[in-house]
């Protein structure tokens, strides 16, 4: 047997990784902010509600990846845990969701109840230990945004590749929608900050100046709304 | 490695006679004829072996000839994944456990005793072990503890495995980040010409990720045939081979077993099959190995009328 050489140092990967990390941090910031955006929250909730209905499941969850922290964050839950899990974090390298986030591959596992493996401590912390679990990555060209999980789907969905394909397709569609929402949010953020700064500046003006300033802000707002397709 | 049969011209005279000479690889034109980009397929879902029947010329390379009686002895297999649990009864001996660690100096691969952080690597190792019980099994952990799915850790672990010249590397993961594509492509070609079969999971839906997408890789998806021992060849790749990945019983953490579904479990099936073939036919180049997998696919019918 050849003894593997454990002294290999791979710097090229580290250098490539530096760019990726910068991208990932920006992505993670945008995605993590999804929780604070009403439209993103509504989108995420509709995804888990729909996934739960499609697969006749007991629950469904979306975890978004906070890559800088190395954690997965519950961002939307349908069913068990809906009222207390959102915002909870766990290490992104652990459990089935962690593997799916790391590998980019969907998977189904069954017979979990009779086994002691499977990040049981994590499952128990959610006060629900499923017997079966389907998970697919929220994937786009920039990488993995998070993971869509379905807990205890109907029995026929647990061992059928077509059902896993369906979950993967739905997760991909969801990732695309989420990306659009977060981009829109990111694009809107500087504008919103500018408006807030403008309002503060206007508040410091005299009566005539304030009136003129507010007219200007209203005009800019109308212009932006028209540009976004609003009437 | 065993030398119970070999088709190389340089085989020793006392070697047992080969049951059938290795046929020429299928003519490239035959494979290209249907390779209209608009018809490329990622999945064989809903298509029976009869519906995707292919033909080839030459001697009949049967599964019995290809790997019958082989246990994978002498073949070094590396599972690049979440680690492998030691002493799992369905995995047996793990000959080497390694992990990619990163610091300001870059990435290094060092020995580890941390086992498996998730269960997936153990599951893949158990499938390899079931098919090739006597192979030498190693693990490189590129996932676990913290998120490491950006591609850099994967690249470092895979590069190390190729440099160690393992005979077969099982990779049930990929990256969608295009900036890693070039480095992974070069590494896949290096593996191919260096004699390391890189067997990698594809996606059953049209997702572009790497390195499975490269032709120097043995790309694998899941079929849903009831016979879990057969594999298929996709007449319209990018995904070339399909193996059992539905409702598969695998090892899991804590010495247990579970049932699973996914492409990532079809991949070690092909890895184990490659180990068996290479153990029985140690002189094969990797393009010959691919040809053997092609000719033994359940949907490929070999026309032996022209064989000598």
From TrEMBL, chain A:
InterPro entries: GAF (IPR003018), GAF-like_dom_sf (IPR029016). It comes from the Bacteria. Residues 39-188 form the GAF domain. This is GAF domain-containing protein. It comes from Catenulispora pinistramenti.
UniProtKB/TrEMBL annotation, chain B:
CDD domains: Peptidases_S8_8. It comes from Catenulispora pinistramenti. The active site is at 81 (charge relay system), 120 (charge relay system), 264 (charge relay system). Residues 1-35 are annotated as: Disordered. Residues 14-28 have a biased composition (Pro residues). This is S8 family serine peptidase. Pfam families: Peptidase_S8 (PF00082). It comes from the Bacteria. Belongs to the peptidase S8 family. Gene3D superfamilies: Peptidase S8/S53 domain. Coiled coil: none annotated. Residues 72-300 form the Peptidase S8/S53 domain. Keywords: Hydrolase, Protease, Serine protease.
